């Protein structure tokens, strides 16, 4: 399944046992030459708190707290297979429960999903980052490989470092991205978004994901970009975000302080490993 090209292998654990040695399975199954090929592995498991539990692993086998594109696909799987009633749904991930609204096509299958991503976390120690903020890390200058540029740090259940650039080219994404991901100022590593502002309501994003490298989309990253755009005065509270694999609509609601993400979810194929 994929959301805006951010593809994962999903294991339905409602009707089968949970596989063993999940980090190793994630590494093997995600390999694009010797496995199925994916940005990671997501287990869809029963939950005592919600309609389902999303248990996620990156392509390198590391566990992750949240995936915005992944949770849209989990909602589609859970509703399409009848494990939960129609919208709204609740999905547990990373110790939080997310509320989700779905829209269906003419065949009754979920095609569009809106996720309440919750409140952004801005306190540096909770993101976490060691970059000093006053009180938050907003347009703070950092230096990587002799290059100086401003960053804005946000957590949407997982850590993000947003970099606004004139052109999100390979020099930024493929060179600076992995260096920022593994920079010691991010104790749990970090996801990095390189963003071109096209207008106050429209941006273009490329993502270097922690544990997976460049991906075609990142929903939590797009949510962090929405927040960072407002905090730095570059964008309005509702934006259209163009990613390599498709578009997402983001809204940072002023009253609730919650970020809402809307995008598609698609099943590509089923198989046996």
TrEMBL record:
Function: Catalyzes the stereoinversion of LL-2,6-diaminopimelate (L,L-DAP) to meso-diaminopimelate (meso-DAP), a precursor of L-lysine and an essential component of the bacterial peptidoglycan.
Family: Belongs to the diaminopimelate epimerase family.
HAMAP family membership: DAP_epimerase
Pathway(s) served: Amino-acid biosynthesis; L-lysine biosynthesis via DAP pathway; DL-2,6-diaminopimelate from LL-2,6-diaminopimelate: step 1/1
GO CC, alphabetical: cytosol
Organism: Crateriforma conspicua
Broad class of enzyme this protein falls into: isomerase
Name assigned to this protein: Diaminopimelate epimerase
Gene Ontology biological process: lysine biosynthetic process via diaminopimelate
